[in-house]
Amino acid sequence: MSMEMTAWHALYNARHAKDDQRPFTRETFRRIARFAQPHRASLVTFLVLSVVTALLAVATPVLAGRVVDAIVDDAAERTVVVLALLIAAIAVAEAGIGLLARWLSARIGEGLIFDLRTTVYDHVQRMPIAFFTRTRTGALVSRLNSDVIGAQRAFSGTLSGVLSNVVMLLLTLGVMLSISWQITLLALVLLPVFVLPARRTGARLARLSREAANHNAIMSTQMTERFSAPGATLVKLYGRPAEESAEFALRAARVRDIGVRTAMLQMVFVTALTLVSALALALVYGLGGFYALRGSLDSGAVVALAMLLTRLYAPLTALASARVEVMSALVSFQRVFEVLDLKPLIEERPDARAVPEGPVSVEFDAVDFAYPAADKVSLASLEEVATLDTRGGEQVLHGVSFRAEPGHLVALVGSSGAGKSTIAQLVPRLYDADAGAVRVGGVDVRELTAESLRRTLGLVTQDGHLFHDTIRANLLLARPEATEDELWDVLCRARLDALVAGLPDGLDTVVGERGYRLSGGERQRLTIARLLLAQPRVVILDEATAHLDATSEASVQEALAEALAGRTSVVIAHRLSTVRAADQILVVEAGRIVERGTHEELLAVGGRYEELYRTQFDTAEEAADGPEEDEAAEAADGTAGGPAGEPVAQPVGPAVPAS
């Protein structure tokens, strides 16, 4: 590697160094060794080839000096030809070994990236929902990208670079001392001119690079939030475009100024080192030529010393930044291990069994639950805060007990924040109960396999999340082997077949980020179609119609009635008129079930349910701009207009007799 290339390489490593002072234990190195274990043979071969490359690099200047001596001494032509052929053979060998070493380096590096990424990805998928609600997505993605690649460089670049540079430095120094110790020592006097600027300039560049990275990260976050569909809407409604642009321009200008300073610092550093290298080369030629003219040094030795000089300063400069490279790689490994050290709160037992066949019940038996504290599920670095929030661990559910019989519908109603959604999240085991038991088919969910639980349960939330993919791909998440006819069948049952058939690309239409190319009602019906395709035996609806207008809600309710027919259902209701036909209604307040019964029974009791129902009923009356009492009575019976004179949504699910 030339002096200029070495300088640029040193600056690059300094700029991209991780600013982290944490200690590294033996366990860190043992874990790194475990990841390297599958690549041990390739790694050893790669290191051997790196050493051989260093040996060949030193041999070429020595042979070049011999050629000069042979010419000066009028040696036989055969000698010059042989030496030239040796130099050519070494060049060919270097090229071949370089290609093989690069192949091994790529194989090791990419293999390590694959191992780290898949390990982290699989681990993250096992984390609880609380982990994702706290973590910044960008910070987590960075662990799978920049940190994994930084860790990979430890093997494919840093390790071999340090080893080959040490070998090359020792060999070069030994050969130079054997040729002329005076010139060698004089060359070493210039060593600080190479090492000190590299460290000082590198530190300044690292600081500038980190500042630029911070500004870029903030701009990236601003763009990500403002360029999403909901973010763009919010900015247009409440944002201040001029101030937003000014703030963005301020940071972009700072990044621009840092870029100019960085470019000049790099160029000054590289130019200075190249200049010093050229001056040192002139010194060797001048002093070596002087000795050669006096007869105390051969002409070939002068040439060899000049060529070896570049082999001396290049590894010295590279080794001066080796510590930065090593520490940066270790920090990357440590940041990856931080994620792997977060223990998933939901673990499948080795003896887990499948959900029993046939219709299944859902039962809560004296369930207590508290959301886990931040230190149990998150990292400060992933939340991009200095310290984790110390709050958490407060009990949310208190002794919740109920049973949804096979094929029956149980509705959960109550104030916002009462714990209804928490109850729904415990059934598919997004969290585990702290006390008591949640049973599906009479078996504690902690004793069931995750796969069978996923096949048994279907959950529709109020946001109706879809991936930025085609309608077909979003449906096939539920059942990848589904046929074309089955896809159209569930779309028909979800009242979406006409809409999809009218789209230019049909099932292959891309729905956009989070499905925002569809209306709210269409998005919800598509999630219901996905539920129908999955054919679960238990359906959980978490306020699936909470944010829909009356027209969209009516369409969604029709699709929901299809989805709930004959299935065990747990429904969280926002509008109480939609759950009047439920087999059992549970009123949840402050994490406790305070009332239970059918619609008529709870109204007759005159408790919290009756209060909630009358509040909604009175609001509906006022919104209708003073309808007569007979219209209000019809509305209560589900036969007349609802709010704003629009049809009241029909009850969720089949009209089953109250039990």
Structure description:
The chain is of the alpha/beta class. The protein has helices at 3-15, 26-36, 40-72, 77-125, 129-134, 137-179, 181-189, 191-227, 229-238, 241-293, 299-320, 322-341, 374-377, 380-383, 420-426, 450-456, 471-476, 484-493, 497-501, 520-534, 550-564, 599-605, 608-623, 629-636, and strands at residues 362-370, 395-404, 409-414, 435-440, 443-444, 457-461, 538-542, 568-572, 584-589, 592-597. It has 2 domains: 3-128 and 136-341, ABC transporter type 1, transmembrane domain (ABC transporter transmembrane region fold); 362-378 and 393-645, Rossmann fold. It contains 24 helices and 10 strands. The strands form 2 sheets. A 6-stranded mixed sheet has the order 6-7-8-3-9-10, sandwiched between helices. Strands 2-1-4-5 form a 4-stranded antiparallel sheet, with helices on one face. It is elongated and about 120 Å long. The model is unreliable at 620-659 (pLDDT under 50).
What does the average pLDDT come to? 78
Approximate strand percentage? 5-15%
Strand order of the largest sheet: 6-7-8-3-9-10
Low-confidence stretches: 620-659
How is the quaternary structure best described?
single chain
Q: Using the alpha-carbon principal axes, give the shape.
A: elongated
Q: Helical content, roughly?
A: 55-70%
Summed up, the helix count is 24
